[in-house]
Fold this protein.
Amino acid sequence: MTLVTEVSGDRHQSARPVLTMRGINKSFGAVRALTDVDLDIHAGEVVALVGDNGAGKSTLVKILAGVHAQDSGEITFDEKRVSIPSPAASRELGIATVFQELSLCDNLDVVSNLFLGREIGAAALDEVEMEKRSWELLRQLSAKIPSVRVPVASLSGGQRQTVAIARSLIGEPTVVILDEPTAALGIAQTAEVLNLVERLRERGLGVVLISHNLADVQAVADRVVVLRLGRNNGVFTVPDVSYEEIIAAITGATDTAITARDSRRGEESR
Amino acid sequence: MSHPPATTELAPRLPLFRLRSGELGSVPVVVGLVVIWIVFEILNPAFLSAGNLVNLALQCASVGTISIGIVLVALVGQIDLSVGSTSGLAAAIVGIGMTSGGWPLPLAILGALVAGALVGLLYGFLFTRFGVPSFVITLAGLLAISGLQREVLGPDGTVNLPYDSFIVQFAQVWFLPTPIAYGLAVAAAVVIALTGWLSMRKRVAAGLSAPSPLSVIVRPLALLVVLLVVVWYLGTDRGIGASFLFFLALVVAMNYVLTRTRWGRSVYAVGGSVEAARRAGIRVGRVYVGIFVLCSVFAALGGLLAAGRLTSAGLSSGGGDTNLNAIAAAVIGGTSLFGGRGSAFSALLGIVVIQSISSGLTLLSLDSSVRSIITGAVLVLAVVLDALSRRSRAAHGRG
Ligand SMILES: Nc1ncnc2c1ncn2[C@@H]1O[C@H](COP(=O)(O)OP(=O)(O)OP(=O)(O)O)[C@@H](O)[C@H]1O
Ligand SMILES: [Mg+2]
C-alpha cells in the first residue's frame, strides 16, 4: 500500500483539504444550531470535533451525512462545490458516516451487516465472495472478530463498533465521520477503536471524530476543532495544545469549574 | 501495511454457514412432532395409516399456504389478523365468479388474487403512511373484509363449485403418480447435493473454511432416504396430493427468495432493526408494502385451495379457526413474532403439527371444542417458548 504512505507522509503541509465547509448556518425553527461554522478535512488526517452538549457537533456532521440541509453556507468536495441533499448523495460523494447507535442489525451475521444495502451478486447473493471480502477488510483493519458468521448481537461492544466502522469502508469512502464511537465502550475496547481510527488515517482517509473524551482526542487527533454554542471556537494542532486550553475553548472561559478543580487538586498534591 | 496473510487461519470452525432461525433451529419442533405422532398412534393405530396421512397432507395445503404469508409479516415484526377473511373473500370471488358470474376460471382466480393484493396494498399504505400498528389495521380489515365477503356472496350465502372444475380437481382429486414422485425425490436430493458440492468447492477456492465432503453428501442422502420412505408409504394409499406438492413448492421457493436474494436479506434486516436498515439504504417502506401484499396474496391462494377442497365457498369460508391456525403454524414452526427470526419452512412444520393434533383428536372422536382448546394451548406454548428464547438470547447477548 504505497499510496497510503505517500499521502500520510506530507498530510499537514501540502495537501489541500478534500472537504471544506464555509459559513455554515443551520436553524431548527427558533433554535440556531450552527452560525457561520467552518470546517476543513484533509486526507490522512484525524479531525476531532469537540464541544459541550448541544454545541452543534451532530448537526454539523448530519449536514455532511445528508440528513439535514444547511440553510446557507457552502461545501466543497475535491475543490468542487457540492450539495448533499440525501444520505445517498453523501455516500456517492465518498462520505461515510458511522452513527453512534442503531447502525447494525442484531439478527444478521457480520457478513450480512457489512454488505447490507450493497450486497454482491446479481440474481442470487454471492455469499462466498462477500465472506472473502469481509475477511480481507477485517484483516486490513486488524480487527479481532472470531467469526463472520455469528449474529452481531453476540459480539462485544468494541467488536460491534469495529463492524460498523468496517462497514463504512465497503463503499471506498474518502472521508469517514465517527459520531462518538467510543461513548459506550470500556478501556480495552476504546483502545481497539482508537487503533482503528489510526488505521483509517494510514489508509489516507480523512477522519472526523466526535468525542467528549479529551484523552481519546489527544491520543489520536491531528487537529481539534472546537464548537461552542453553534460557533467555531478555536482550532488547535494536537501536540501543541494542552488539555486546559481545549477545556477553556469548549466552555468559553479560562476560569471554569473544571480548571478551578484541576488547579485546586494541583495545589493540594503539592 | 503488509499484505494480509492467508485467509483460513481465523476462519470459523462453527457449523453456522447460513442465516439460522434460532439457536436450535427446527429441532424442538421436529421432536415435538414425533412425540405427537407416537402418542396419537398409541391412542389410535389408524393415525399413522397411509390413508390418514394422505388426508393430513391435503388438509395442510390451504392453511399452510396462508401461514407462509404470516411468516413473512412476522419476519418484519408485524402481524396480519385478517388472513382468514382475506382467504374467505378470495373463495367467495372465485365461487361467485365461476357460477353466477360465468367467468372463465383463470379470470376468476386472477380476480381473487388481485383482490388479495389490493387488500395487502391498502394495509401497506396505511402502515407506512400513517404508522398505525398493523394489528389494528388488520383487525379493522378482518371486519371489513368479512363484510365484503358477505356482500360478494349475496343473499344465498353459499355457492357450490362444480366438481369437475380445475380448482376442485386440483385440491382433492389429483395425486402425483408414484413414479414421478420418486423422480422428484431423487431430483431434489441431487440438486441439494450438487449445490452443496459446488459451494464447498467455491469456498475452498476462496480460501474459506468449508464443510467436509462427507457432510456435503450425507445431508442430501439422508433427505433422499426420508423422501423415498414418505413417497413409498403414501403411495400405498392415494399418494401425494397435487395441492400439497404445490404448497411444498411455495415453501421452497419462498425459502430461496428469503435466504438467497437481496430482497430477502432486506426483509430480515427490517425485522432486526428498522432504523439500521434505513440507514443502510434499504427502502424500508417498500419492503413493508411488499410483505403485506405478499401475505394477502398467500392468504387468497390458501382460500382458493380451501374452496377447492370443500367444493364450496360460503360465509364460513376462512372463518372459524383459519386465522388462528395460520398464525399458530408460523409460530409453532419457529418463526418469532418479534421480527427478524424465522424461515419459510416454519409454515410447513407448524401446519403439520397443527393438523396432526387436529386429525388425531378427530380420530379419538373428540369434540371440535376440545380441538380448539388444545390448539389454543399449543399456540400459547409456542409463543411462550418464542418469548423465552428471545429473553435468553438477550441475556446471552445474542439479540
Ligand atoms: N432535529 C432537531 N430539531 C430541533 N432542534 C434540534 C434538532 N437537532 C438538533 N437540534 C438543536 O440543535 C442544537 C445542537 O444540537 P446537536 O445535536 O448538534 O448538539 P451536539 O453538539 O451533537 O450535542 P451532544 O454532545 O449532546 O451530542 C441543540 O440546541 C439541539 O437542541
Ligand atoms: Mg451529538
